[in-house]
Amino acid sequence: MSEAIYKTRVINTRDLPETALALVQMLAGPAQAIQRGELVAFPTETVYGLGASAFMPEAISKIYEVKGRPQDNPLIVHLADLKDLEQVAQDIPDIAYELFKAFSPGPLTLILPKSDCIPYEATAGLDTVGIRFPKTATSRALIRAAGPLVAPSANLSGRPSPTRAEHVLSDLDGKIPYILDGGNCQIGLESTILDLTQDPPQILRPGGLTQETLEAFLAEKLTRFQAKPGVTGPAKAPGMKYRHYAPKALVTVYQQENQKQAFADWIEASSDKRIGLFLSDREAEEFSGYLTSRLGEEAASHKLAHLSFIPTEGEVNPAFQKPILLYSYQGVTEAAHDLFAAFRFYDEQGVSQIFVQGEEVSGAGQAYMNRLSKAAGGEAKPLEVYKHH
Ligand code: TXA
Ligand code: MG
């Protein structure tokens, strides 16, 4: 799949037209492409999805081809209206309706028994199917025009999930006919996956909806799925079998206890290569203070570029040439929003090692630390230092 077979068209859907008719016209090309069995990338509130008709086995197979996705990794079906649930699932428990009514559209995927309409190509041979209702107006309009869509994240397998249209373009240019550009994804990490085919229900992947929120709603404690060593078969949770969400650079998650030592090591590391830092505003302040005290104002300013947002891919700025690129965030929600974009930005800048600050593994921090530890190639142990390779 290396050769370009499409002239990929990027359609700006950031400002959607006022009237339903104009919206239908805007999405007519992409909707028809879906119905012809082609793939269309679209924005959701979590990450960009790579959509195919949920009812077309050949179109679904293309998703695996284009992404280089392992065949045993099942897809999520995306719907716009609750009334369509019965088309794609069966034996649906009341709690599924209650959960979807409470949290959809939004970052919640439920695993349910699949209906006969959903081909095994979509579920990696499983009799169950993941279903969610994405929140963006663009995704909802596309689904209403083209029917239910199966969609994984719209990245090449193993790479960080795309949170901007330009990320999709850099992975899939020439491989798909359309990318719908909806700007930055609101959340930046994938949906929470809850398996309702098990009693009690189990969280297969932490995500945009917190475990605490789900537990409060269900009035019960939930367990997280843990991979059993030696068990094979379709992947229950992403990242279990494959390295995921990873930039090319080595990712190290560092603990704050050894802060001063870590700072010294980073300065050392950046003397022979370029490094990227991803820290809270507070920690970033500490670090630049430390750098200045070690090297003096002038030398420190030559060494460090401190960014408060992730630049657009392809943007050129002399500051990006500096050996230490530091991005800082206010809180964990902002960190989650920008993590994947930062990974891609640092890769583009030729950074060889990325140091990321660990956060608490609760609330929004749970999904965040899950992605981070997977990018670093480890399990979710936030107070240790991970490395991949
Ligand atoms: O936020 C999201 O969920 C994004 C956007 C595009 O909607 N989608 C997404 O898809 O993250 P993907 O393909 O990257 O992750 C799908 C994961 C699979 O790796 C698997 O763990 C789980 O969903 N999954 C899907 N169907 C399943 C099933 N029948 N049983 C268990 N797990 C399933
Ligand atoms: Mg993915």
Task: Write up this protein.
The protein has 389 residues and is of the alpha/beta class. Helices cover 34% and strands 17% of the residues. The protein has helices at 20-26, 28-35, 57-67, 85-88, 94-103, 120-123, 137-146, 165-172, 211-218, 259-269, 281-295, 297-303, 332-348, 364-375, and strands at 9-12, 40-42, 49-53, 76-78, 108-113, 128-132, 149-150, 178-181, 192-195, 202-205, 223-224, 250-254, 275-280, 304-307, 324-329, 353-357. It has an eleven-stranded mixed beta sheet, sandwiched between helices. It has a five-stranded parallel beta sheet with strand order 12-16-13-15-14, with helices on both faces. Helix 2 (28-35) packs across helix 7. It is globular and about 65 Å long. Residues 379-389 have low confidence and may be disordered. The protein binds threonylcarbamoyladenylate (TXA) and magnesium ion.
